[in-house]
Amino acid sequence: MVAHVPSGGVTGTPPSQGGAGDMPGEPAVERLDLPAGYGSPSERLVWADVRARLEAAPHVWLATVRPDGRPHTVPVDGLWVDGAFWFGGSAETVKHRNLLLDGRASVHAGDGDAAVIVEGTAELVHPGAGTVEGLRAASAEKYGYAPPAGAYAGGVWRLRPSKVMAWTSLPVDATRFRFRRG
Length: 182
Description:
- About 20% of the residues lie in helices and about 35% in strands.
- By secondary structure, the protein is of the alpha+beta class.
- Strands 2, 4, 5, 6, 7, 8, 9, 10 and 11 form a 9-stranded antiparallel sheet that branches. Strands 1-3 form a two-stranded antiparallel sheet.
- The two termini are about 30 Å apart.
């Protein structure tokens, strides 16, 4: 079940002015502007519910940009942990080569009827032991197995969102979440 907030936003404030977006790590909530012919959202999704959908998604579509500007899309598994999408894969893959040159990326969970689309920047990180153990535990919980610590310590991609667009019933609850990075 997905909770909705009336169009006035959190605690009666306009969605782009205040509410959850003022708390560290929480996004600002806005109505997703749609072309006039699509209709206008009258409700907002709640970030905790959208985050839960990202955490539960077994696979997402990852889109990256090739050096010549063409898009590249591939299904990946991964983890939504600490406000970011974490994923790996061979250094020989197209996605890996693309992201090394241009970190702009998006992931799409769900289908067109109930979508979650994350846009942001991916970076290859070499996490410390605590983060590696957290990722291994999250993988074991989600997928029933945990890759060896070296699979993460050797480098893993972290996609930090700049915005997330989501809906369960377009256009009724089409919502945008904007993230501030300090």
